[in-house]
Amino acid sequence: MIIRYIIINLFIILLLISCQSNNETNDSSKYTVVVTTNIIENTILNIVDTNYVNVFPLMKEGVDPHLYKATRKDLELLNQADIIFYNGLHLEGKLAEVLDKLSRQKKVVALADVLDKEKLIQVGEGIYDPHIWFDVVLWKEVTQYARNTLNENNIPTSKKNYISYLDQLDSTNNWINKRITNFPSKKRILITSHDAFSYLGRAYGIEVNALLGISTVAEYGIKDINNLVDYIIENKVRSIFAETSVSSKSLEAIVAACQTRGHEVQLVSGLYSDALGKKDTKEGTYIGMLESNINKIVNSLN
Ligand SMILES: [Zn+2]
How many domains does the chain have? Predict the structure, then answer.
């Protein structure tokens, strides 16, 4: 009986050890940077020296940050972090309390804090649109802020990668400007589920409209549907866009409502708003995501 007890206990201990070694956070020789969205993850990966630093996102592809709540595993990860980055401006609305508590113990950085308020899109009294990554110039500023903060906190960075990345951001910004400029302004109307593209619209001259406001937490009513349908018909819009991190159901209702009024509109899927694509794909990078979105928008509206 005793031997059996010892064997079972040994087995449990071995199991725990093997679980721990499989745990991706267990590499104690490296610094741990924890971030909220995979957009921030990709940015930080282009700055840090990955020989010495691990970057862990809480949210992967297809995850909506407005609704995301921390899991137990997230809390463990956040507790192990040497530094934490999040977007801010209430993008991660349901993580606010957790991040606030952690900020009393360690460095917790809201990247949007670096931007002057007058550069932000204000949507209400003291409320700003959080989707700042859709203006590459603003996101470059955020990237520079992230790098300075990492340096100040002695997290190893790669100067070579960082300099090259800033160049790539400039090229991407120029590429988007060209791609949009060559596209007739009358056709530049981007309609999505939630209002995530106002910075893209302001920076590159695209009119945007959405069923929901800047957060997916809000709900929509019949009046919102009717208003959007009116807008689509008035402006002869032929394509509307479903986002990878938001249900497309509401937009399907819009397509059907347009149809009953004799207006054909197609629903284009796969637009990235608040999350990048799968890791190790082109759309799993910030720049690749932007290219994919812009090509999709221009090709579908043309
Ligand atoms: Zn959003």
Answer: 2
Bridge partners, residue 83, by sequence: 33, 107
Reading the block at residue 196, the tokens are: 């995530």
The alpha carbon dihedral of 39, 42, 47, 48 has a sign of: positive
Which SS3 state, helix, strand or coil, does residue 17 take?
helix
Tell me the per-residue pLDDT of 145-187, one tens digit each, with 9 for 90 and over. 999 999 999 999 999 999 999 999 999 999 999 999 999 999 9
What is the distance between the alpha carbons of residues 216 and 149, in angstroms, rounded to a whole number? Answer: 30
pLDDT band at 28 (very low <50, low <70, confident <90, very high): confident
- 211 φ, ψ (degrees, to nearest 5): -75, -40
Here the tokens at position 285 are 């990078």
Share of the chain above pLDDT 70, in %: 91
Whole-number Å distance, alpha carbon 131 to ligand 1 midpoint, is: 6
Cα(254) to centroid(ligand 1), Å: 20
Phi and psi at 276, nearest 5°, equal -75, 180
Q: Are residues 153 and 266 in the same domain?
A: no
Q: What CATH number does the domain containing 102 carry?
A: 3.40.50.1980
Interval between CA 216 and ligand 1 midpoint (Å) = 6
Host domain of residue 162 = 29-174
Token pair for residue 80?
A: 């192990």
The rounded Å distance from CA 290 to ligand 1 centre is 15
- Six token digits for residue 32: 């741990």
CA distances from 194 to 19, 153, 210, 291 (A): 40, 36, 5, 20
Return the bridge partners of 107, or none: 83
Q: 98 is written with which tokens?
A: 């957790």
Length of the chain: 302
What pLDDT, in 10s, does the model give residues 186-242? 999 999 999 999 999 999 999 999 998 888 888 888 899 999 999 999 999 999 999
